[in-house]
Amino acid sequence: MAIRNLLNRSFVAGARFMSSWFRNIEPAPKDPILGVAEAFLADQSPYKVNVGVKCAYHNDKGKPVVLECVREAERRIAGNQFMEYLPIGGSIHMIEESLKLAYGDDSEFIKDKRIAAVQALSGTGACRLFAAFQQRFHPKTQIYMPVLTWAKDAGVPIKTFRYYHPESKGLDFPGLMVDIKNAPDGSFFLLHACAHNPTGVDPSEEQWREISSQFKAKGHFPLFDMAYQGFASGDPERDAKAIRIFLNDSHLIGVAQSYAKNMGLYGQRVGCLSLLCENEKQAVAVKSQLQLIARPMYSNPPLHGALVISTVLGDPELKKLWLKEVKVMADRIIGMRTALRENLENLGSPLPWNHITNQIGMFCYSGMTPEQVDRLTNEFHIYMTRSGRISMAGLNTSNVGYVANAINEVTKSA
Description:
CATH architecture of the largest domain: 3-Layer(aba) Sandwich
Helix content: 40-55%
Radius of gyration: 24 Å
């Protein structure tokens, strides 16, 4: 009996202890973008428009798009002979094509085998993998990220550098240069190669040259987040200009690539992380460490999307088709920018709207205040984040006039 009572008391004490394991965990803050999506879905108005959460490209009818080059690639790989694991480093063919896209078809760095590269879980996964690499081999460093950008929760201390200028709705280039200069020598920086997310503001070619020069003087290391190559301007070479400038200035660089936007493979989560090293021996060592880090993180990257990408980029005809299709997507977004600006100007808006067409890529930082955004939602059933960021993919020829009229109404007294 005594033993049984002792066991019962131990059981009660153990149960009480176990019940407290998760007691102090608070709910995570609600994602503001998901909140916009929920509110839009609940709205019964026939006039409602969602320009807040469409991070995926939709056509002029508001429908999601699967590229024909992707459909053809899927037909070719249907019935693939194996569904086994890829190596930890991913698909060799996909990586080869990714490097040519980022560094150039005739890159001397590819020929000299100076690039350590692994397949990653899209661009976000590539950035996360790099952060773990930085944390392991440069634990006393931090990474500088632009204001504004999306957070990367990776355990690496984060600093910010000035980027977006709210008054001009453009680039705060003087502030950016001062912050680069004042950062400790040998700092890590996250740069967006093109179509900066979320602002759509990019440095000019000459500004990129000045940034590169200052990086050289300070010995900083740039990690280029390139999620929109081809999708920004319609020309993959033009969209990689910043990377080419840094390469010509003899920097060692990192590149995080994604195929979500430019190939419409949002759900496949396929990307590539590459690090340019001093020589082949160093590249071999760096790649081995990246694979070692990836092993407990996700072990093996996904197969299907990698097959699609290597098939499209590895076949001259399919690649030609992809280049045509990605330009169509980019041109539609650019066209919506022009239409929104022209509609606002034709309505006699007293505000300047040239920043809409000066910015590039999926998103436009409109400059509207949270209160103005609230009016758009409450009075016109137009949904976006309270930062005033507009997803251009949510606009089409049917609704751009309505949206412009609503924006004019809520901003004309500003």
